[in-house]
Amino acid sequence: MTSSEPDLLMKRAYEPARPDDGARVLVDRLWPRGVRKDDLKLTLWLKDIAPSTELREWFGHDPARFKEFARRYREELRANEGALAPLEQLLGSGRATLIYAARDADHNEAVVLADYLRERFRTG
After folding, report:
1. Cα distances (angstroms) measured from residue 115 to each of 6, 34, 69, 79
2. Which top-level group of life is the source organism from (predicted)?
3. Maximum pairwise Cα distance, the chain
4. pLDDT tens, residue by residue, 12-34
5. Relative orientation angle of helices 109-123 and 85-92, to the nearest 10 degrees
6. DSSP secondary-structure letter at 104?
7. Residue 65 to residues 68, 78, 94, Cα–Cα distance (Å)
8. pTM for this predicted structure
9. pLDDT at res. 3
10. What is the average pLDDT across 22-48?
């Protein structure tokens, strides 16, 4: 890992892929509803770094629960750091876009994951 800031973007699964997305990584445990596999143009689908089913169901995309969701999700990420290796390798060689299905662009797992990865790269 490098100590520089990773080139990391976030995008909803329902937005079209663009050439400047770089590596496209789905970070949801569930496949986005109504999206064909070919349409996502994924590099990787990393189900193992997504929040646990229990945490995802507890959160329910309720913005009032986001702060606690982020804390719990970070705990899960720390306990499962080996699952981050493929994503960190991609980030070491260029841009990556975290793909998520949630409607709320500010309160979802990709936001927490991106912040977590940026911190890891800074402290690298």
Report:
1. 10, 28, 14, 17
2. Bacteria
3. 39
4. 999 999 999 999 999 999 999 99
5. 70
6. -
7. 6, 20, 33
8. 0.92
9. 52
10. 95
